[in-house]
Structure formats: structure tokens, C-alpha cells
Amino acid sequence: MRDAASRTGFFLVDDFAGVPRHVVDAAFDAAARFFTADTTTKIAACAWEAETNAGYVAIGRERLGVSHPDVGKEALNLPRDSAATVLAAVAATTDKADADALAALLDAASAAALALLAAIGEAMGDDDIAAFVAAHDASAAPAATSGTTLRALHYSPITDSDGVVAVDDDGCVLRAGAHTDYGTITLLFRDDRGVDDNDPASTSDDLEVLVGNDWIRVPVVRNTVVVNVGDLLHDWSTGLFPSTLHRVRGRATAHRFALALFVHPHDHIAVRNMPGLTAGDHLRSRLEASYTGTPSQS
Ligand SMILES: O=C(O)CCC(=O)C(=O)O
Ligand SMILES: [Fe+2]
């Protein structure tokens, strides 16, 4: 883990890091059903709110890279601290079982993250692993708020008429621009749904990581979760574990689904190497830079 985290900032963990497969599958099914609703319904149910970072992020609202909005990407944000309102909106839009499935993944992935953080603390040679883990553990500080958020992501097929960006020679578009993640670690669950069966080149390994000067594809390995280092672990480890630039570059014709838990310390925790900045301030400034004002109604 120390080797992978320090070289690329990305690694795969078997058995979904302890999250039961049926919990992952049920959450994928729930997210896919929610995204099937039309845009107006989803916006009306729970439009994304800057204050809480909770809710439905319509196509055109988010730009992870600097150049243009992420192409054809919509998301449902379930921050740990304000999941309830979004879960109620999911229950009203599809059904209660779907809301329960997303809540179950939020809980199970959050627990898995704490176990991973203990291992990561050991791998980076932290002199107070317990404090590192406790800085992310809701039960260790029940009154503390945190940016930890489950996001369901859906990238829909795009056509020429979308006119947003060019499809490159490989038939791919940049689905999510190059960025580093904002928190401590991210747990990314992927599956094969959305792969275009009519297109032999279509795969779900669309996630690319910048290693040296090369964009390397992160392979999809069944029953694994991708774990990657975010900016605050880069900070905590003083650069030993780098938060690596990554992007999603995928087939223009395919759907893509992913579920990501962005794990953050409690908001009041100080960012080690930026005096005066807290984890909460850091997250707010990154969110402000990546969300645009107007949803497109496509
Ligand atoms: O869609 C994905 O696989 C990952 C997207 C990503 O890197 C992110 O949302 O931070
Ligand atoms: Fe990311």
C-alpha cells in the first residue's frame, strides 16, 4: 500500500474493502433508477445546494477540469451530514428501497474507509494513527460536521448535436476533466453497466491517472474498489502520498455509472501545511471553483 500510494496515489482493494457485494449492487441499481427520471423531475426533487453540497447536480453544472464542463455528467450528492433530505427525495422519485440502498452504501463505505485510514496511517508511518482515524470518524466526534459525501455519477451518451466538445480519434470524450480529489481518500466503485455492447472498444475502464507524462487506464477488476489519495492526505503525509491528477475519458456512445465516497476529515481539522486553513474551508473553496451557476436542461 505504501508503495502504490506513494508512486501513483491509486490502488485497488479486494472484496470492496469489506463492503458486501449486494450492498454495492443495490446502490448501483438505485442510482440507475433515479437517473432515469427526467431532468426537470430530478431538479424539482432535490436540486443541488451550494450550502450543503447536497442534491442533484444536473448536466452542465460541474467542471472538474478548468476548460469546460464535464460532458454529459450528472450526479447525486449525498453528504453524510445532510443525506436525509436527498434520501427522502430519492424515495419520492423512485421508491423507499432505492433510498435505503444508497443509505446502506453510505454507511458501509464509511465504515470501510475508517479501516482503510488505519492501514494508510500505518503505511505513511504516522506517529498518531488513532488521531488520524478519529479525525474522520463521526462516532469519535458526534457534534462535528464533515464533508464526507457519497456521490452517484452517471455519464450519458452524447451525440454530435450536443456540440460541447470534439470526440477524439478513438471515439472518446473527456467525461470529467483532469483534477485531484479534494478530501483525504476516495473509494470508487465501478461496474460494467453502461458498456456499449455494440462497440467492441467500449469498456468501463475509463478512469485515467497521470503517471509521469502518460495517462494510464485504471483496470476494472471485479469485486475491487479503487482507492485514491486526495489533497488532504497529500497534505497530511506532506507529499509522501501524492494526490494524483486523474480524469474520465470514455466512449461518447456509452453510459457510465460510478459510485464514489469522498472521505473528508471533520470540518474543523486544520490543514497541516496551510496555516489557518481548515478542512471545511478547503472543501468550500474547491466546490466553489468546480460548480457553475446554470444547469443545462438537456
Ligand atoms: O467517474 C469516475 O469514475 C470518477 C470520477 C472522479 O474522478 C471524481 O468524481 O472525482
Ligand atoms: Fe476524482
TrEMBL record:
SUPFAM superfamilies: Clavaminate synthase-like (SSF51197). One of its GO terms (molecular function) is oxidoreductase activity. The keyword Thylakoid does not apply. It comes from the Eukaryota. Pfam families: 2OG-FeII_Oxy (PF03171), DIOX_N (PF14226). Residues 146-265 form the Fe2OG dioxygenase domain. The keyword Coiled coil does not apply. Keywords: Iron, Metal-binding, Oxidoreductase. PANTHER family: 2-OXOGLUTARATE (2OG) AND FE(II)-DEPENDENT OXYGENASE SUPERFAMILY PROTEIN-RELATED. Belongs to the iron/ascorbate-dependent oxidoreductase family. This is 2OG-Fe(II) oxygenase family Oxidoreductase. It comes from Thecamonas trahens ATCC 50062.
